[in-house]
Design a protein that fits this description.
heterodimer; A: mainly beta; 6-stranded mixed beta sheet; 5-stranded antiparallel beta sheet; B: mainly beta; 7-stranded mixed beta sheet
Amino acid sequence: SQQGEEDPQALSIQEGENATMNCSYKTSINNLQWYRQNSGRGLVHLILIRSNEREKHSGRLRVTLDTSKKSSSLLITASRAADTASYFCATDGRGSEKLVFGKGMKLTVNP
Amino acid sequence: KAGVTQTPRYLIKTRGQQVTLSCSPISGHRSVSWYQQTPGQGLQFLFEYFSETQRNKGNFPGRFSGRQFSNSRSEMNVSTLELGDSALYLCASSLALGGANVLTFGAGSRLTVL
């Protein structure tokens, strides 16, 4: 299965700290995306990184991709209570059009 | 512009019944995907439609079906409901097919099967 797996499954930090979430996947990909989901609601796109890119930034977000290790990391700097949510990585395998999501990782940022 | 609209937001059914969920994509988006989200399995891909054609299908039984209309609106149907079908059903739209396209999700339809 090409489904990504986020690690850790849950993370609790204090406001102002950095949060790092990891995603591993099994097959070659074209693109990897990160999404956020607030409790019981729809997912919101955060960032997309292509297989030929190694790092990408968007505001307080930094994403890295290591295709040799089939892994990606999402770093949220200077976290805020509003960052409390579940975070998902999603990948598309080569030759596949569909986007497959991992099981998600729950981040809690304590004020 | 309006986001992805899913109806109904909540519904309760009993085993053996059937249910139809509706999704209106963002104007101009031609691809609609459906996902089932449960605490144990995470997000599971159901199917994806583009220009009224099913382009991809996940590993779900034939009780799960869908369709897309000429205005890109989509419906999914689950027949002979089972307790395990209780889940949040998410619809997402994108401009085109392919993993380079960003998905915009609706708020979901929460189905409870009793």
